[in-house]
Amino acid sequence: LQETRAALRGVAPEGLRALENALAALPAPREIVGAPDPESAAEALRRAEDALAAAETAFESARGRDEQARLAEIRALTTREAAATRLAELRETLPEDPDTAATALAEAQAEVETALATAREALAALQGEAPDLTSAEATLTRAQAVLDQAAKRQRELSERKAALDTEITLRAGEGVEEELAATEEALTKATERAARYGFERDTLVLLKETLETARSEAREHYFEPVTRELAPLLRLLWPEAELVFDEDSALPRALLRGGQEEPMEVLSGGTREQIALLVRLAFARLLARGGRHAPVILDDALVYTDDTRIERMFDALHRQAGDLQILVLTCRQRAFRDLGGQMLSYESGELPEEAR
Predict the structure, then answer these.
(1) What is the helix (H) or strand (E) element at residue 230, kind and residue range?
(2) Does a structural domain hold residue 324?
(3) Rounded to whole angstroms, how far apart are CA atoms 282 and 177?
(4) From edge to edge, which strands make up the β-sheet containing 252-257?
(5) Residue 283 lies in a domain
(6) SS3 255
(7) How many CA atoms lie within 13 A of 149 on its CB side?
(8) What angle (nearest 5°) sits at the alpha carbon of residue 227, between those of residues 224 and 233?
(9) How many structural domains is the chain composed of?
(10) Per-residue pLDDT tens digits of the chain, which is 356 residues long
(11) Which of 7, 37, 80, 148 is the most buried (most CB within 10 A)?
């Protein structure tokens, strides 16, 4: 307030009223004889207008400051009166003995601080035991969803039950119970039939497994001895060759040479002829080992075998002839003259003495 008044005194030392009177006392414009030139007059007019504008601005500023100062003074007076009233009220509430009041106030303050500490401890305990708000909200949301689904399911089941009750009522006179009894009887028969079929199926499965086991054992009992007897005979013609048998027909299927299987169908006539003879010799040896000797009779054999292979076949015959009786019937004396063994021949219709 004092600063505002000082600023007002700086602009209008004698007050606003004196400044207004001075402005009103200014002479009215009159014609001036011997006036200066227009430029000087215009410059003087501009300066006068600037001065007037500055004066008006200063006046408005001063008036605004004065108004602010007046309002500030009013507020200050109001605040002073309120403070005086509050001071009077406080003086009325003050006890007669200040020391007693101070002691009571200190005790009350201590009790308040103790209660505050207890409340803070309880709050900390509650906060420590309180569940996580986010987790609780998630659990609540899930529970609400489950509840909604259960309610929806209950409504659906109620509607379904009502529909079924209606259907039962409508079909009560259509012989449903008789149809149910017939269906149950048919189900019983079908169950018994399924049990019989199941027993038959299990029996057939067991039979199949038994037959497969027996076939596997028989195959091993058959192929292994034959392969063992045949191996040295094959080596006489094809070193490191093996004969592959068909598991179903038990007949030679292919000749394995150099890691490649050659089916019997693609082999030459001489090769197939030689394999057939070697297999017969192997089987004859197996029978002989089992005490069932059987002669091997070759009637005009080795027709397609060349000279080199036929000599190796002769070696195979002699190799097996140790405990076998092998009879070779042929009209090709020149081809079999190197066979060796006991030769029998006749030229007339009578048998030779050795054959009688």
Answers:
(1) helix 176-237
(2) yes
(3) 76
(4) 242-245, 252-257, 260-263
(5) yes
(6) strand
(7) 6
(8) 155
(9) 2
(10) 566 666 666 666 676 677 667 666 666 655 555 555 667 666 766 777 777 777 778 778 777 777 887 887 788 788 888 877 877 777 777 666 667 767 777 787 788 788 888 888 877 777 677 666 677 677 777 878 888 888 888 888 889 888 888 877 777 666 667 777 888 888 899 988 888 888 888 888 888 887 777 766 666 666 778 888 888 888 888 888 888 887 777 778 888 888 888 998 888 888 888 888 888 888 888 888 878 888 888 888 888 788 778 888 888 888 888 778 888 888 888 888 878 877 776 665 555 555 55
(11) 7
Rg value, the chain, Cα: 69
Which residues lie below 8 Å from residue 91, measured CB to CB, with a gap of 6+? none
The string of pLDDT tens digits covering residues 326-344 is: 888 888 888 888 788 777 7
Q: Which of 300, 316, 320 is nearest to 238 (CA)?
A: 316
Q: What is the CATH number of the domain that holds 231?
A: 3.40.50.300
| Residue 314: both structure tokens together | 């002769």
> Number of helices and strands (H, E) in the chain?
8, 5
Q: Which domain holds residue 314?
A: 216-346
How far is the C-alpha of 290 from the C-alpha of 303, rounded, in Å? 31
Please provide the DSSP assignment of 139-198 as one string. Answer: HHHHHHHHHHHHHHHHHHHHHHHHHHHHHHHHHGGGTHHHHHHHHHHHHHHHHHHHHHHH
- Whether residue 140 lies inside any domain: the answer is no
Which residue type is seen at 86? R
Cβ atoms of residues 325 and 295 within 8 Å: yes
Residue 267 near residue 255 (C-beta atoms within 8 A)? yes
Question: Residue 334 corresponds to which tokens in the numbers above?
Answer: 């020149």
DSSP 93-138: HS-S-HHHHHHHHHHHHHHHHHHHHHHHHHHHHHHHHSPPHHHHHH
- Of 61, 82, 103, which one is at a domain's C-terminal end? 82
Looking at the DSSP bridge assignments, the partners of residue 260 are 257
Helix (H) / strand (E) element for 329: namely: strand 326-329
Among the candidates 36, 62, 82, a domain finishes at 82
